Amino acid sequence: MYKIIASDLDGTLLMPDHKIAPYTRDVLQRLHNDGAYFVFATGRHHIDVANIRTNVGIPAFMITSNGARGHDADDNLVFSHNIEPTVVAKLIKMVKDDETITIHIYRENDWLLNRSDENLIKYYQKFGFRFTYFDPVSPPLEDIAKMFFTRRNHDYLISYEKAIIDKFSGQVSVAFSTPFSLEVMAAGVSKGEALKVVAELQGYSLDDCIAFGDGMNDVEMLSAAKKGLIMETAHARVKAALPNNEVIGSHVDEAVACYLEKYLLKV
After folding, report:
1. Looking at residue 116, what is its pLDDT?
2. Which residue among 20, 100, 201, 212 has the highest number of C-beta atoms inside a 10 angstrom radius?
3. Contacts of 266 by beta carbon, 8 Å cutoff, 6+ apart
C-alpha cells in the first residue's frame, strides 16, 4: 500500500459546495487507522485548510499556497518559501491599473485583496477565513507566499501568464489553480517539490506516494508521485501535460474516496 496519500482539495477531494462529504471523511479516517499518512496539497491558505482538516478529523500534513508553505499535523511550520519583495512590487505594478483583475496576496496569516469581490465575499463567509484590503500604491512586500490574479476569462489571464513568465523567468513559478486564477510563487515552488520534502520528513520517498488533482498547479505533484491520478473534470491542459496518467471520476461522485476504498483500504 502507498504510505502517503496526497490530494488537492477544490475540484478533487471536496464536493461542489467545497466541503468534505461524509463518505469521503469515513474513508480517510479508515485509511488513517490502517497506517496511511494523508497530505492536503492545495493552493489555499493554511489557515483555511486547517479548518477543513479539523472537519475531516485526522492528523494530516498541509502543503498550502501551491507548495510555498508546509505545516505538519501539529500545525508546526516546517518549510516556507517567499516571493522576493522586488518581484512582488513589479508584479503589482504590472497588474494594478487593470480594473478587470483582482490581485490577491497570501502572507503567513493574511489574505489581502486590492479591491472588493462580491463572489469571494459570499463564498468565504461560509468558511470563516476573511480577507482584508491592501493599497496597491503602497503594498506589502515581505513574507509573501503567493500572489494570484483572478478574472472570469481564462484567455485574458493567459496573456498575463505569458507576460509574467517572459519578464520574471527564473524568479517565479506560475500555474493556474483554476482557469480563472493565475497564481505566482517563488521560483522552484510547486506541490511536487513540497511532496518530496514531506515524504522525506516521514522517512519515505516519492515512490511511496499516490496523488490526486485536477489543476495545472497539480501537474508537478501528479508527475512526481509514484502514481498520479487526474480527475475527469480536470482542465484540458492538465490531461495534455500528463497523457499517460490515469483519469478517474468526478469530485461530484467522490471519486477519490471511491478509488482509495477500492484499491488501498485493507479488507
Report:
1. 82
2. 212
3. 1, 34
Could you report the per-residue pLDDT of 134-182, keeping only the tens digit for each?
999 999 999 999 999 999 999 999 999 999 999 999 999 999 999 999 9
**Strand order across the beta sheet in which 69-71 lies:** 77-80, 69-71, 60-64, 37-41, 4-7, 209-213, 227-231, 247-248
Class for domain 85-186, per CATH? alpha beta
- CA 53, 58, 59, 63 dihedral sign is negative
Q: Which residues are catalytic?
A: 8
Q: Are 111 and 133 in contact (CB under 8 A)?
A: no
For the chain, the first-to-last Cα distance in angstroms comes to: 12
Q: What residue segments make up the domains of the chain, in order of their start?
A: 4-80+189-263, 85-186
Q: In the prediction, which pLDDT does 130 show?
A: 85
- Report the C-alpha gap between 149 and 137 in whole angstroms: 17
Q: Can you tell me whether residue 79 is helix, strand or coil?
A: strand
Average pLDDT, the chain: 95
Beta bridge partner(s), residue 146:
106
* φ/ψ of residue 198, rounded to 5: -60, -45
Contacts with 17 (C-beta within 8 Å, 6 or more apart), sequence order: none
CA distance linking residue 60 with residue 7, whole number of Å: 11
CATH entry 3.40.50.1000 includes domain 4-80+189-263: yes
Q: Nine-digit cell at 24? A: 469521503
DSSP state of 168: S
| Torsion-angle region of 117 (φ positive above 0: left; ψ -120 to 50: alpha; else: beta) | beta
Segment 90-103, tens digit of pLDDT: 999 999 999 999 99
Question: Cell match 494594478: residue?
Answer: 96
